[in-house]
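U., I forgot to send this yesterday:
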Amino acid sequence: MTLKRLTAATFSVVAFGLSASAHAATYTDRASFDAAVSGQTTVTFEGLVPAAADIKDYGASASIGGVLFNNSVDVTVFAMDPSLLAGTAYGSDFLAWDTSPPFDGGAHVLTLTFANGPVTAFGFDFMELRGHASTYTVDVGGLSFSAASGGPASSFFGYTSSTAFSSITFTQTPLDDQNFDFYSMDNFSYVQQRLADVDSAVPEPASWALMVLGFGGLGAALRRRRLMMPA
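Result:
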């Protein structure tokens, strides 16, 4: 094997070894999520509804707290409504989407894009505003997860990853469009990418072994090449 080919193979082994240290995790309670992350920014949606109103409709998109909330139909911020059993679980302003027809082909879709660059974690409280049990899909970083709401009480979903990502897509199919089933969230938290930490964690023992093996092979090839060079 030539030095050029061996060098390329060695770097491939090193890259493979480093990828072994990448990891992701999901959370169903905020306390565990908070314990796993630090330096998070939280969007509470407070103060976005005029004092004289209960609802503020932002149209197809809203940029709030460094996050672009985008939906083809409706992005809305609600003030707490004591007349709604489900709404009282939040106790504060909250965001909802697709609150009026037409819906996105029967599914409610919301895309979040982080305006200030990639992040490594996010978490949020959520519920179906009318108190129905429902499930929706969270697509992030090429992976797909289910987040389930049990009814009138809010639920929590959190996600952390050593690989940064720039956007998230939420999809929920309502039980009954005619009854205006729609999803909502509050206290959306995220952690901005830390260049010193993301994808540069200390390699695992197996990763170190691969790295040592690769660099050892490279050194042997260099020594052999020197011995074979004519005097």
